Amino acid sequence: MDIQAIVSLDRTECAVQCNSKKRILEIISDIAASNNPQIEAATVLTSLLAREKMGSTGIGNGIALPHGRLPELEQVIAIIVTSTPAIDFDAIDDKPVDIFFTLLVPEAQTEGHLQTLAMVAQKLSDKTIVKAIRNASTSSDIVSALQ
Predict the structure, then answer these.
(1) Given pLDDT bands bounded at 50, 70 and 90, which one contains residue 110?
(2) Any idea where the PTS EIIA type-2 domain is (predicted)?
(3) β 77-87/97-106 pair status
C-alpha cells in the first residue's frame, strides 16, 4: 500500500493548539468523524485511548503513531496532525511529541494493519520528510512532504 492511498488533505491539520495527550486524541477523533460519517468521534477516541493504555504510541523524535481498529471501517484511513507546542505523550525517548500520524483500520485487518504501521514508521524515519512536516505551515505542506 502506498501512503498516498490513506492520506487526505481533509484529514490533515497543521499547528493545532493543544497541551495534553487526551486533548490531541480528542482532536484527532473529531477530525476522523467529521470526514467519515460511518464513524463517531467517541468510538474513535475509545479505540485510541484503549491502545494507549497498552503502552504509548510515541515512537521517539517527537513522533507518535496512535492507532486503533474500528468495526465500522472498510478501509484504512490516516489522520495527520501537528501540534504547537509539542506535548508530553509518554514517548519512548521521554521527549514531547508534535507529529501525530494516526491510523484507523478495519477491525478484521490485523496483518494489513501491521504492514501499514511499518510503512508509515519507515516513511517517518526519513529525516528530510520529518523536517518538512515540522516546517509545514499548512495542511497541504504536510501532505506534500509525504509524497
Answers:
(1) low
(2) 5-147
(3) antiparallel
Q: Which residues of 30-49 are buried (b: 16+ CB within 10 A; e: fewer)?
A: ebbbeebeebebebbbebbb
The Cα 1–Cα 47 span in angstroms is 23
Task: Check 36, 44, 47, 67 and give the catalytic one.
Answer: 67
Phi, psi of 21 (to 5 degrees): -60, -50
Q: How far apart are CA 112 and CA 119, in angstroms?
A: 10
> Domain locations in the chain?
3-146
With a cut of 70, say whether residue 113 has pLDDT above it.
Answer: no
Task: List the CATH code of the domain at 3-146.
Answer: 3.40.930.10
Q: Which residue has the cell 476522523?
A: 32
Shortest CA distance to 66 belongs to which of 36, 39, 88, 99? 99
**67 is an active site residue:** yes
Q: Mean pLDDT for the chain? A: 91
Is the pTM value of this prediction over 0.85?
A: yes
